[in-house]
Write the structure tokens for this entry.
Amino acid sequence: MPISTLRSMSSSPMLLYFTSRATTLSMETGSSFPQLGMQQSLEPPKQQLPGYGKCSTAGSDPGKDPGKAAGCSGSSGIGKGPMPMVCSTPCGNPYAGLVSHLRASWLSGKTRPMEYRMAQLEALGRFLDDKKQEILEATELDMGKPSFEAFFTEILLCKNELNITLNNLCHWMKDEHVDKNLVMQLDSAFIRKDPYGVVLIIAPWNYPIHLFLVPLIGAIAAGNCAIIKPSEISKNTERLIAETLSCYLDSDCFAVVTGGVPETTRLLENKFDYIFFTGSPPVGRIVMTAAAKHLTPVTLELGGKNPCYVSDTCNVANVARRVVWGRFFNAGQTCIAPDYVLCTVEMQDKLMPALREAITEFFGPNPRESPDFGRIVSDKQFQRIRALLGSGRVAIGGQTDEAERYIAPTVLADVLPSDPAMQEEIFGPILPIVVIANMDEAIEFINARPQPLVVYAFSCDSKVVNQVLEQTSSGGFCGNDTLMHVTLTSLSFGGIGEATLEQVKGLKSLG
């Protein structure tokens, strides 16, 4: 039976997009004593800065009627240039004016009422409904993403997260009353969750809608303003987001910034109140360094090499089908995909024909012609992944086509820990198998490396699965299945160390 679990790494009451504000109210004076350092409200500018939100016109208020602002034609957005949303300032940073404008909107208190948050969240739902076809088209153009995969990950999972948030926001916003000591019995003591302020969300290219929208849902629900920076690598999806999202959200409080490394570098020079980044560890270090200059709290979703231990006591056919599905979903470009298999040499011999059969079942005799198998997102990524094919020996697949950025679903046998495929996250349709002697050696192998985002374990013996769970450390754990733990909004998503800083999803993404 599959097992999914979150390894919670913190018992802190401070959650992602809320700050926890300890408050006592005296019965005699009725005064409140918030924690030191809380920001005071400032007067917003009397005149709106020009150039923010292409759909705003006189007489229309996206905050009250998102999605119906004048100028929103509802067209695809594919094939048009993204709308610039920048403003030069005396300090020379092209985004300083935009950040200041959003901060003024937040300090005005506009985003705090529950009704406003609900209206913006409902507008995100309309965005997903109205732009469903455009999203499917853009992700197919960017990386050949199959329509089912795109609908499931970019739309359905986002709507599930959105519905959970809408159904629970009223409860999540309530004050949390705490125990009092003897001298405080006549006073009120509670934790009030305050929004951080202006949040920066930097999204990746592999799930370009899901991985900006889920953090944005948490930011909106918590009462923040936000700047969204979609990945320039998934250029068609970036263009769609830049041209259409402002038709649904209040442009005084939410903005999209496009561009590559230079633009992101300049954007990070500004003072944000929270930064949410999804991407690689090297870039995560750059983001964290920029945030440290302003002492800005961050969430880093970075991925890593996720081990998959397969014991000698398992249903080989089931293991093969579930590992193939998890490894080659989105052409392997998934941060929680099983990155390599650990098993005995006897199990490797049993797995090979089962893996070959599962690949044929899912993608046909020629996966290149399958409508259910995607492509690598860029030439750079294609060349990097292709170079890993020299590790071990190619037992299944191995075919490539540079013109299409196609790499066949590939299984590498007899891979050594020193091989190139074991030195970095593969992030592509290659599955190495590393031979170990037994479960103890597998656990030792896992623990000798950086803590992964998720550990997978397959066995018909629940004691084996539980032993791997108890003796390893990771952000998540999934027994006898792959990927499925991330579909549960009741389980936060995240890790520790190089995999992730902080946990997100559901209430954790809110506060």
